[in-house]
Amino acid sequence: MLGPFDLLLPPTILICSALTLPFTVISLLASGRTGDLLNWGKLKHTWFRHLWGWFGPASKPLFAPDVRRLYDQARGTVLDIGPGSGIWMNELGVAARAGKIDKIYGVEPNVNFQKPLLAAAKQAGLQNIYQPVPAYVENLDKFGIEKGSVDTIITVHVLCSVGPQLEQITHDLYQYLKPGGQWLVYEHVGSGRTLARSWQRIVNVVWPHLLDGCDLTRNTQSILKKAGDWEIVSLNMDPKDGYFEALPHCVGRLQKST
Description:
By secondary structure, this protein is α/β, with parallel strands linked by helices. The chain is built from 8 helices and 7 strands, in the order H-H-E-H-E-H-E-E-H-E-H-H-H-E-E. The chain has a 7-stranded mixed β-sheet with strand order 3-2-1-4-5-7-6. One of its GO terms (molecular function) is methyltransferase activity. It comes from Myriangium duriaei CBS 260.36.
């Protein structure tokens, strides 16, 4: 907590993203993918891949203690939603080596992340149980993932970026959990404090365009609670977040009714 300086974090991230764009353009030109420069969807996915390739690992220490506690609870068949380049793969590896995990599906629709995701799985010793799934939630059944077959869903810094269909997506994901299955959550959300939330709304005018659709203002915790019938809801705002925190987090666990 840095007091009022916490408000500077989102603009700093925007600057980092903007500085990554020229590198992305040069990379696409050098690789002969000039057509992607005229396709906004492909351009923004590649742009975010380049940004997250260095910013993800660089920012990991800020969130690692909380996220590691979540991954330690993973068990059985796991749906890891939006793993990006796989910066939390080692945490999955720890749980797998402890005998808690049988199978991991890494659901990452941004195809630019597939190679680093596979490399991270191999480095963590998960190549035999890790399966990348280059698809959106509505297409999971095409990859042999059956509804009611998943023990653990993990979402870390991903529900902010799934577009306006968040309620439908969380409802759909709920269907894949077994009775008694769990959803582990670490997401940045809209602030409940007037000043920080007003600042989020101002920054959010630009933020989604430079961060691949990410939304600073979502009430993700409320949407998750309404996704289905939960037996246990232990989902709270991070107590470490201060009054000026412009990227506050909700963290916790939900368990599907048996």
